Amino acid sequence: MGIISWIILGAIAGFLGSKIVNKTGQGLIMDVVLGIVGAIVGGVICSQLFGVGVTGLNISSLIVAVVGAVVVLWAYHQFSGRRTL
């Protein structure tokens, strides 16, 4: 995937992940960064478990990225002391 695709996927995953984890966003930049990290984490986890990771800008990759973003956001809140769920 190209950098623009990662940014778009990260923005969407970060936004959705923020809404799932704590109902408010972290801000546009932080949502995108945590979403991109989440997409990478989700891709690694899913590729290890199921043999399929983030393959492009599609629904299955978005689901993987959102799951990864939720994991990353949860961990971010645990380490930063912010309240989640």
Automatic annotation (TrEMBL):
Give the record's keywords alphabetically. Cell membrane, Membrane, Transmembrane, Transmembrane helix
Q: What is its main location?
A: membrane
Kindly indicate where the leader peptide sits in this chain. none
* Localization terms from the record: Cell membrane
A Pfam short name: Transgly_assoc
The way it spans or sits in the membrane comes to: Multi-pass membrane protein
GO terms for CC?
Answer: plasma membrane
Question: Which family is this sequence assigned to?
Answer: Belongs to the UPF0410 family.
UniProt-recorded name of the protein: GlsB/YeaQ/YmgE family stress response membrane protein
Which organism does this sequence originate in? Mesorhizobium jarvisii
Lineage per the UniProt record: Bacteria, Pseudomonadati, Pseudomonadota, Alphaproteobacteria, Hyphomicrobiales
